[in-house]
Amino acid sequence: MSALSVTNSSSSRFALTGFPGLELYYLWLSVPFSIIYAMVFLGNCMILHVIRTEQSLHQPMFYFLAMLALTDLCMGLSTVHTVLGIFWGLIQDISLDVCIAQAYFIHGLSFMESSVLLAMSFDRYIAICNPLRYSSILTNAKIVKIGVAIICRSSMLIPPVIIRLKFLNYCRPHFLSHSFCLHQDLIRMACGDIRFNSIYGLALVISNLLLDSVLILMSYIMILHTVLAIASQEERMKSLQTCVSHISAVLVFYIPIIGLTMVHRFGKHLSPLVHVLMGNIYILFPPLMNPIIYSIKTQQIRVRIQRLFLKET
Fold first, then answer.
1. Nearest to 249 by CA among 148, 118, 145
2. Taking Cα atoms as reference points, which of 122, 85, 293 lies closest to residue 219?
3. What tens digit of pLDDT does each residue of 283-312 get?
4. Burial tier of 232 (Cβ tally within 10 Å: 0-12, 13-18, 19+)
5. Burial of 184 (0-12, 13-18, 19+ CB in 10 A)
6. pTM exceeds 0.85 for this model
């Protein structure tokens, strides 16, 4: 225990937090978490398989959905070893280098998911507000460029703040708030000058998550304005129905982020269980729910999945 509270070096280790006070029930807790991770992997792999194999789904909307499923799949892969490792008694702490790498992937994939959701809102805006030019605007070449831009934006802006974590002094007790590593958790344990990390980290959140959410909101304001101008009630409902899955995915992504931020900022007096629970919801809820949402709400996906299961039976 004392080794975890001494100061830094690249060999420093950080204690992961499972569910404090429930250590005796970790084996039982591993069952629902294992099921959730299995559903994350199977659900997102199924979405990717259906889109890849069904020629009729080779359209912009489903290309963006494939990007979302791939992002969710990677998010699950980036945390499964520490989350389940704690419950199975395979891991109690993590090295600084591995912790920094995990934080990079978690934050990068969060920014990537936000960017994909923004691209999907642009897709819905073009489909509803400018349907005659939809195929000419969102060509395959444009979608590839959007995908490359999303990857660059999500992966190239984070390294300055993540790399600096390697050179900070960690003289406070090395206990993480979650069963995985986050940037805000590491700088909380640092004793040196963390102004760059705090300011740059805030700038990243504003320029990615906040900006994306504002642009998504603006796109839906314009979509609503266009839909309300349609004379037919049936056509209005049909147009809005195509947005239900995306709106649900946006809410599933942003609500846990807002909740986790509020807990980190104002919930210092709350039980550690609340912090752990909110962290796991932030990591697992979007990857779990997105395949379910799109399988239920998107007819083309639902029909193809039903056909896939009928073939197997």
1. 118
2. 122
3. 999 999 999 999 988 888 888 888 877 766
4. exposed
5. middle
6. yes
